[in-house]
Amino acid sequence: QGQLVESGGGLVQSGGSLRLSCAASGRTLGSYVMAWFRQAPGKEREFVARISGSGSSQYYADSVNGRFFIWRDNAKNTVFLQMNKLTPEDTAVYYCAADFTRRESTRAGSYDLWGQGTQVTVSS
Question: pLDDT tens digits for 30-55?
Answer without folding.
Answer: 889 999 999 999 999 999 999 999 99
